[in-house]
Amino acid sequence: MATCKRLDWDWDSRFARVQAAIQEASEDALEAAADKALADADVPVRSGALKRSGRADVAFPVAVVHFGSTGSDPRGRGTEHYAIPQHQRYDYTHPRGGSARFLEYELSPGRRLYEVMADRIRRVIEGKK
To answer: Which listed residue, 15, 73, 111, 114, has the most CB atoms within 10 A of its CB?
Structure first.
């Protein structure tokens, strides 16, 4: 005796849930990637003020990672005065660590960022979040 079962797939409802999960994972992944780039940037160190001034502003689908817009060094001088020269100039020496192009190296070519994003999306799809 054969048994017959009917399978109904509510395409619209399931698609909307999958789409919402992917959107949420993408937003979470972008934020995680920006935070990772901020943490891993090889910022030059003298007093630590420049490193502490780092911020990641995320408004999906854009993340902006920046240094120097807030904070001040021990002498009270704002980090915005030296953040760009420290980043751009190769002739500066950094005896306490760090390097020129400290943020650019972290964001280019972007492979690590994509790996972080792919991991976050994979976890949401697998239900592990």
So the answer is: 73
Question: Per-block average pLDDT, block size 10, for the chain (129 residues)?
Answer: 70 77 82 85 83 87 83 71 78 82 69 75 74
- Long-range CB contacts (within 8 A, 24+) of 93-101: 94/44, 94/45, 96/44, 96/45, 96/46, 97/42, 97/44, 97/45, 98/42, 98/43, 98/44, 98/45, 99/42, 99/44
Residue at 110 is within a domain: yes
Residue 55 lies in a domain: yes
The token pair that represents 20 in the structure block: 């919402």
**Domain total in the chain:** 1
Nearest-angstrom CA–CA distance, 117 and 27 = 9
What is the model's pLDDT at position 87? 77
Handedness of CA 118, 124, 127, 129 (dihedral sign): positive
Domain that holds residue 55: 35-68+80-129
Q: Is 119 helix (H, G, I), strand (E, B) or coil?
A: helix
Tell me how far apart the alpha carbons of residues 128 and 11 are, in angstroms, rounded to a whole number: 23
